[in-house]
Write a structure and sequence with these properties.
The complex is a heterodimer of chains A (433) and B (604). By secondary structure, chain A is of the alpha/beta class. Chain A has 3 domains: 115 residues, Probable tRNA modification gtpase trme, domain 1 (Gyrase A, domain 2, 2-Layer Sandwich); 108 residues, Four Helix Bundle (Hemerythrin (Met), subunit A); 145 residues, Rossmann fold. Helix content of chain A is 45%, strand content 16%. With 604 residues, chain B is α+β, with helices and mostly antiparallel strands. Chain B folds into 3 domains: 450 residues, 3-Layer(bba) Sandwich (FAD/NAD(P)-binding domain); 63 residues; 55 residues, GidA associated domain, C-terminal subdomain (DNA polymerase, domain 1). Chain B is 35% helix and 17% strand. The two termini of chain B are 21 Å apart. Classes of the chains: A alpha/beta (433), B alpha+beta (604).
Chain lengths: 433, 604
């Protein structure tokens, strides 16, 4: 990847806005050392690389100062990190002093990571993982982001590409050098199937990882007075929702966040649905339908005497788990039995929810961002079309769709596999005049 | 006025196309050649076409060039490659009678009004205030012109290697051009060095044809050129090729003699193409390949000679004879001329604008193997475009730049002038992201209108093409109304089976069928191409830019662009409703008017 080195030097407070024991100010760019010396006059003229100096920072505080010469730094440029105490006021005063240097300016959000990417220190997937790691709200989210940061996603994509690039080369060689590359398309079906399997597995895991990153939405719905709100409170362990024997008491959609085996789950309690509702209730019912549209898992909560579940199931478009609530009052033939009143089945239900939502698998490679999932979906679809085209269409279409798939995979890691095509062809084939 | 509108330096494949185009467009043209009877000689394989090259030839033909027509006249063996692999990669290859091809081109050049030919060597370009004004010959003559097209092929500082023997010349039997490189360097042009090789020529009678496999051509071939009459055709007696193979014995001889190969001794400085290695190269790089295929191509019905495709080499003569005689059928072969390599200067084509005019000197155009390409077809296409643009400049009109989705030739020129070359450049269909659109069967639909606009295609010819377009469109509409299109899209359904008594000519039926079956795939491929971030995304569009001036844009696209006033090509790409074709046209306009990479349009 070629890029002109940045001519500007940027600085920012790297630690978060809340007070903490230590704060970090990061400076990156050609003037980093010079600017740092303005606020740390005690820094030696030629500091030892990556040595932690204890020095007075801006005359306000003592802290550690470390110099990372290029290219072995976070951004690949010259970097200096200052670590005074983590008082927000102090940090901002130091930063202000730094920015008095004419060559220095405040970094834009994500700019350090962008420079790291441009300088080839991290690839695109890892760059996004940094953002995710910073934003992770649950333990599962952290683990998944960390896995991506460690390159798990990149490795899986690279593995798929390492099979796809030679396959693409073989197909193109067949088309452009029919005499020399004869027979190179012999095993295309099997090779395509192998990569498809890989990508489909990656996508499945990715769906799980996505939940880990952004949290799952579990929506409780069902007929009025089925016991949804009681169950909601029981899962929460509080008495947050209004519980009233009068039908239609929960007018709003209530949300609360719980953690299930490290997975962040947003529980959504909705108004009971019934025919012949008044105007206010009708609004609540529309909100229920809206909540169901965003659900990763819908819990259809029904009382012991409820019948005709088919119509209820069809309200939700995704996965539905039937909960046979109020099990202390009567048993049902189907549905997960739970009694919020006496606690029966509650811990089993939590375990079942965790299992269905893939909690505990968050180390799995995650495709959290919409961008990744979309690119992977396009790559998979292109390969599926390629596979179909093998039976149904012509080799040039198969080659074309394979190229589309490679392009989509490149988007995830930010590389360009197409320029490697000719190299790959000539390494594999002896082409002659 | 003493002088011509255009001087073309070198009358090989690029030069002939340039000279003919200029003259046909009304520019008074002078062609300069070292030897008049060597005009349009094929230096190597006596064939025109092949994968991607066949596409270039059809596109050149649709624009009004000459090569396809000459190939039809001289063709002795017509084959279709990739016949079952899809209509976009289906390619025609024509083996020609080597002498007949040259004579046909020479006749066209000789008969062309407005085109004169003179013999001699151009030693210097004469440039005044950044503009070329003529050439100076080795014999002292000064010839003036408003534009100069340089198409010197492999002749600049050319050095031939046959084993340990070196000799000066751009081709066996020809001299080299020694002065011009110096003149180009003095003008500030960078030059690089490439090499190419050619196999021995064998005596036909000394080959045991019975021992070889046979490859006949089409029993009833169709002409390649739109201008060639369907009957009587073909014009030459048709020949078959032979097929044989190298073996371990061949490879052993080559390995034992590597130290005598100029390439391995380091005698050859120039870089050769990866896809066209010498036989010794192949044997070293693909050591575990048991045999290499060799096609034995007769050079003409009356010719004594056979061209063995796949046996390019620069080994000494005695080594060549030894390894040749290891091939089946060649046990007693006699060699008429030995194979050799030739090194030559080329001018990196990033020094050219998209129109093939040099950036440094106005009115000066480079085309052909001089630009680091290999292949007659690549050279001819460049020559045609350079000639067209030189003539347009003489007329004071805007140059012709084709968009990448219009032709493989456009991709060729774009790749050369924006990415440059690090080995002799050969066209592959894989280079074109719009490959599914760029078929031999629709070259006329894509390009004849351009040819007409510049004056190389007659009104009658373009009218015939528009009638074809209308017939195809009408039939597609009829099928859609009759709800038959989804059926035709199915792979197992052919047009002929759906409409058995169709009045459409068979080439139109093919086009209807392909359009129906490919529409979906083309859309997918283009959506994918659209997403790829390209360097061109960063190209700035000046704030004063008038989108209405971009030729070929639909009204909606123009309105959308005017409204949004995107500042970069990337921004334009992402506007809702912008199609790849529209972006392609915008790019073409930016390139043609010099408004990219911060360049300003030149005055005059």
């Amino acid at each position: 990847m070629t890029s002109a080195p940045s001519s500007s030097t940027i600085a920012a407070i790297a630690t978060g806005p809340a007070a903490g024991g230590v704060g970090v100010i990061r400076i990156s760019g050609p003037a980093a050392l010079e600017a740092a010396r303005r606020v740390v006059p005690g820094l030696p003229l030629f500091p030892a690389p990556r040595h932690a100096y204890l020095a007075s920072i801006a005359g306000l505080d003592d802290g550690l100062v470390i110099h990372f010469p290029a290219p072995n730094s976070y951004t690949g440029e010259e970097v200096v990190e200052l670590m005074p105490h983590g008082s927000p006021k102090l940090l901002s005063m130091v930063l202000q002093r730094l920015c008095e240097h004419p060559a220095l300016r405040l970094a834009e959000p994500g700019e350090f990571t962008r420079r790291a990417f441009v300088n080839g220190r991290i690839d695109l997937a890892r760059a996004e993982a940094v953002a995710d790691l910073v934003a992770a709200q649950s333990e599962a989210g952290v683990r998944s982001a960390a896995a991506q940061l460690a390159g798990a996603l990149s490795q899986r994509i690279d593995a798929a590409k390492s099979r796809l690039v030679p396959l693409h080369a073989d197909l193109e060689a067949c088309l452009d050098f029919p005499d020399e590359a004869e027979g190179a398309d012999a095993l295309v079906a099997a090779r395509l199937d192998a990569v498809l399997e890989d990508l489909e597995a990656l996508a499945a895991q990715g769906a799980v990882g996505a939940l880990a990153r952004r949290g799952a939405h579990v929506v409780l719905y069902g007929p009025v007075n089925a016991g949804k709100s009681t169950l909601f409170n029981a899962l929460l362990g509080t008495r947050r929702a209004l519980v009233d024997p009068e039908p239609g008491t929960t007018r709003d959609v209530l949300e609360a966040i719980i953690e299930l085996q490290g997975l962040q789950v947003t529980l959504v309690d909705t108004a009971g649905l019934r025919a012949g509702a008044g105007r206010v209730e009708a609004l609540g019912i529309e909100k229920t339908r809206e909540a169901l549209r965003g659900a990763d898992l819908a819990l259809l909560v029904v009382p012991p005497d409820a019948t005709d579940l088919g119509a209820w199931r069809s309200e939700a478009s995704g996965e539905v788990l039937v909960i046979a609530a109020k099990s202390d009052l009567g048993r049902r033939s189907e549905g997960f039995p739970v009694s919020a009143a006496n606690g029966q089945g509650l811990s089993d239900l939590k375990a079942e929810l965790a299992r269905r939502l893939g909690a505990g698998k968050a180390e799995a490679v995650a495709l959290a961002s919409e961008r990744h999932r979309d690119a992977l979906r396009r790559a998979t679809e292109a390969l599926q079309r390629a596979r179909a085209a093998l039976d149904a269409s012509t080799l040039e279409v198969v080659a074309g769709e394979t190229a589309v798939a490679l392009d989509a995979l490149d988007e995830i890691t930010g590389q360009d596999a197409r320029t490697e095509l000719l190299d790959a062809i000539f390494q594999r084939f002896c082409i002659g005049k | 006025m003493n002088g011509h509108d255009v001087i073309v330096v070198g009358l090989g494949h690029a030069g002939c196309e340039a000279a003919l185009a200029c003259a046909r467009m009304g520019a008074s043209t002078l062609g300069v050649t070292l030897k008049a009877d060597r005009i349009a000689v094929m230096s190597c394989n006596p064939a025109i076409g092949g994968t991607a090259k066949g596409h270039l030839v059809r596109e050149l033909d649709a624009l009004g060039g000459e090569m396809a027509h000459a190939a039809d006249q001289a063709g002795t063996h017509f084959v279709t490659l990739n016949a079952s692999k899809g209509p976009a990669v289906r390619a025609t290859r024509v083996l020609c009678d080597r002498d007949a091809y040259a004579r046909t081109m020479q006749a066209a050049v000789g008969a062309q009004p407005g085109l004169a030919v003179t013999e001699g060597e151009v030693s210097e370009l004469v440039v005044h205030e950044g503009r070329v004004v003529g050439v100076r010959m080795g014999d002292g003559r000064e010839l003036m012109a408003r534009c100069v097209v340089v198409t010197t092929g492999t002749f600049l500082q050319a050095l031939m290697h046959l084993g340990e023997q070196k000799s000066i010349g751009g081709r066996l039997g020809d001299a080299a051009a020694t002065g011009l490189s110096g003149s180009l360097r003095a003008l500030g042009f960078q030059l690089g060095r490439f090499k190419t090789g050619t196999p021995a020529r064998l005596l036909r009678q000394s080959i045991d044809w019975e021992a070889c496999d046979r490859q006949p051509g089409h029993a009833q071939p169709l002409p390649v050129s739109l201008k060639t009459a369907r009957a009587p055709f073909p014009l030459q007696p048709q020949l078959s090729c032979g097929v044989t193979f190298t073996n371990e014995g061949t490879h052993r001889i080559l390995r034992e003699n590597l130290h005598r190969s100029p390439l391995y001794k380091g005698d050859i400085v120039g870089r050769g193409p990866r896809y066209c290695p010498s036989l010794e190269d192949k044997v070293v790089r693909f050591a575990d390949k048991a045999r290499h295929t060799v096609f034995l191509e007769p050079e003409g019905p009356q010719s004594e000679l056979v061209y063995p495709a796949g046996l390019s080499t620069s080994m000494p003569a005695e080594v060549q004879l030894e390894f040749l005689r290891t091939l089946r059928g060649l046990e007693h072969v006699e060699v008429a001329r030995y194979g050799y390599a030739v090194e030559y200067d080329f001018a990196p084509p990033t020094q050219l604008k998209a129109t093939l005019e040099t950036r440094a000197v106005r009115g000066l155009f480079f085309a052909g193997q001089l630009n680091g390409t290999s292949g007659y077809e690549e050279a001819a296409f460049q020559g045609l475009l350079a000639g067209i643009n030189a003539a347009l400049q003489v007329r004071g009109e805007e140059p012709l730049v084709l968009a990448r989705h219009e032709a493989h030739g456009a991709v060729l020129l774009d790749e050369l002038t924006t990415r440059g070359v690090d080995e002799p450049f050969r066209m592959f269909t894989a280079r074109s992201e719009h490959r599914l659109r760029l078929r031999e069967g629709n070259a006329d639909l894509r390009l004849r209108a351009h040819g007409h606009r510049v004056g190389l295609v007659s009104a009658a010819e373009v009218a015939a093409t528009e009638q074809r377009r209308a017939r195809i469109a009408a039939e597609l509409e009829r099928l859609e109304k009759g709800q038959l299109l989804p059926l035709l899209r199915r792979p197992e359904v052919s047009y002929a089976s759906l409409v058995p008594a169709s009045p459409l000519p068979s080439v139109d039926q093919d086009e209807v069928e392909t359009e129906a079956k490919y529409a979906g795939y083309i859309a997918q491929a283009e959506a994918a191409w659209f997403r790829r971030s390209e360097e061109s995304d960063a190209w700035r569009i000046p704030s004063s830019f008038r989108f209405a001036e971009v030729r070929g844009l639909s009204t909606e696209a123009t309105e959308r662009l005017e409204k949004a006033r995107p500042e970069t090509v990337g921004h334009a790409k992402r506007l809702p409703g912008m199609t790849p074709a529209a972006v392609g046209l915008l790019l073409v306009h930016l390139k043609r008017t010099g408004l990219f990479h911060g360049e300003r349009p030149s005055e005059g």
